[in-house]
Task: structure prediction
Amino acid sequence: MRLIAICFAALLPLASTAQENAAVGTGAILRGLEKLSGDVIDIPLGPGEQAQFGPLTVEMAQCRYPQGDPAADAFAFLTIREEGQDAPIFSGWMIASSPALNALDHPRYDIWVLRCKIE
Result:
């Protein structure tokens, strides 16, 4: 138990440093894939904006990226709802460099983060 506490204490400063060094983008560029037809579309969103992709409504709350390197490891907080369902089918952070880490689980549609918009 003490070893776990020591490891956690050692990692805590790293987590706060990573969070402090993140810059907030002016929006995000997402990519959507319709798995049956293979159609791909890029979806630009600003904070609080929504876009429709098939029966899905995608809302982006915020996009962050490493300060000084906007092309690296963007991550966005998304809420995705499907027509006819009250609860979101996805709500959380998606990471551009590791989309499978926290992915949308839908049989027909796939959505992932490409990058943050910075202007």
